[in-house]
Each structure stands twice: as structure tokens, then as C-alpha cells.
Write a structure and sequence with these properties.
Elements (H helix, E strand, L loop, with lengths): L4 E5 L3 E5 L15 E5 L2 E5 L7 H9 L7 E5 L5 H4 L2 H7 L4 E5 L17 E4 L4 E4 L5 E6 L9 E5 L4 E5 L14 E2 L2 H4 L4 H7 L3 H11 L6 E4 L4 E3 H12 L15
Length: 253
């Protein structure tokens, strides 16, 4: 297993890329992240039941898991959320943040205590931490979910982008971070053209997040993009034709 990686640490506020398995698996590769702010912790897209033991071990190397206060979900896909009941049984005081569109689906994962669920309104919200720091929940609807959010950490200047910025690694060629956009984009193009809904949605999201100072973008699949690579990704994504823009090709038109 690859070890946890610290992406930001100012002593008080820390942002971790949690470790992953070395072995290539026959499932969708996923990334998980942990923000530690003082004695509070925020877990980002912790994943499905299959990866729960590994993610729990990763988290335990950094903090006691019961100290997780907030669990943020970008959207409803099972590779993001299907381990939710396992996390709620361990992080007994945590709140779950998810789009208001998906709250009614949570009982299908065994989540019946609505008091622990924070429904994110369509226009976004903020996770306010006890230190006074805040995490911004930014709308990213239709990229690719109808109820989708990304998270910006203004202290670390990191944008957690969920499926936006995802890549599909060639077999046996995983890498955790990159500053080589020209090479990396080859592993992103196919996914984004098929899974993202339209260029209208792409442009709107890029115009919003580009107002932030972004030192790196951390997606839920693939590799962390730093500095210039992150900047070039946003430029590329803003012009991307995808989804319904390309609908004719599926009908032989």
C-alpha cells in the first residue's frame, strides 16, 4: 500500500492524500482525502465498502477515526458513498454533507438518522470549523451528477474536484501527482467527453472556481494536478465539448 501523502501542513491545518493499493485492481480506482484542522477532521469522498478497511487504516495513521466531525460527498455514486454506514458507525459524532437531491437516497445505504445529514442547497454552502476556518462547497451541477459539489479549502488553496479532473490510468501505470499536463490530458479526455454533461456546465464551473487562488486540484480518480498543470486543466476544461454536445455520434449522425 502506498503511504499517506501530506499535500499541505501549516502546523494547524493539514490536507492529506490518503494512501492507495499498489496492486492494479479490477474496480474503479479512487482517491480519498482528509483535512485536519486543529482537533477537527473532514473526510472527503471516503468511497465504497470495498475500500473501507484500507481507508480506515490510512485515516488511523493520522488521527483517531472517531474524531472525524464532517464527511463530505461530492455526489451519489456508489464509489463515493456506498461505505457511508460503516463510517457513521465509527465517526459517531460526524455530519454527512451531500446534495439535497440525494438525501432521500441515503436510506438505501442504511442511513435513517436524518439528524446526521446536512442537505447542501443547490447554490452551495460552507463547512464552518471550530478554528474559524471554513471550507467552501461550490456547485458543480451536471459535472457529472445533477446534484454535484466541489470543495475549496482556502487555507491550503486546494480544490477538491471530485470527478472533475479524473483520469483513467493505463494498466500498471498509476501516478499520484503530475505537473505534465500535455501527457496527463491523454488519460483524461475520454472520461470527460463521455461523463461530463455539456460545455455550458463546464464553463460555468470554471468561471466560478477561477476566482479562487488554486495551488492544486485533487480529483477523486487519478492524479493530483499542481500549479501550472491545474491552471492548464481549467483552461482546457472550460473549452471542452462533451456529453450532449457530442450526442449525434451515438446515433450515427
Amino acid at each position: 500500500m502506498v503511504e499517506n501523502t501530506s499535500l499541505f501542513d501549516n502546523g494547524m491545518h493539514k490536507f492529506y492524500f490518503l494512501g492507495w493499493e499498489e496492486k492494479q485492481e479490477e474496480i474503479i480506482q479512487t482517491n480519498q482525502y482528509l483535512i485536519v484542522d486543529g482537533d477537527e477532521a473532514v473526510l472527503l469522498d471516503p468511497g465504497g465498502a470495498h475500500v473501507f478497511p484500507r481507508v480506515l487504516a490510512n485515516v488511523s495513521e493520522i488521527i483517531e477515526p472517531h474524531k472525524i466531525n464532517h464527511i463530505f460527498y461530492t455526489h451519489q455514486d456508489p464509489d463515493v458513498t456506498s461505505g457511508i454506514i460503516l463510517w457513521l458507525s465509527i465517526a459517531e459524532n460526524s455530519k454527512v454533507y451531500i446534495s439535497n437531491l440525494w438525501v432521500r437516497f441515503l436510506p438505501h445505504f442504511g442511513v435513517y438518522d436524518q439528524k446526521r445529514v446536512v442537505a447542501i442547497p443547490d447554490r452551495g454552502d460552507t463547512i464552518r470549523l471550530k478554528s474559524g476556518n471554513s471550507l467552501e462547497l461550490i456547485p458543480s451541477h451536471y459535472l457529472h451528477s445533477t446534484g454535484n459539489f466541489t470543495l475549496y479549502d482556502p487555507v491550503a488553496k486546494i480544490l477538491f474536484s471530485g470527478d472533475i479532473g479524473a483520469c483513467v490510468f493505463p494498466a500498471g501505470k498509476k501516478y499520484r501527482e503530475t505537473d505534465d499536463f500535455d501527457s496527463h490530458v491523454k488519460n483524461m479526455e475520454g472520461f470527460h467527453r463521455r461523463y461530463m454533461t455539456s460545455n455550458v456546465a463546464c464553463k460555468k464551473w470554471v468561471d466560478v472556481v477561477s476566482r479562487k487562488q488554486i495551488d492544486m486540484i485533487t480529483p477523486q480518480h487519478g492524479a493530483v494536478m499542481k500549479k501550472e498543470c491545474a491552471k492548464r486543466f481549467l483552461q482546457w476544461f472550460r473549452e471542452l465539448k462533451c456529453g450532449v454536445d457530442l450526442i449525434d455520434q451515438f446515433y450515427g449522425v
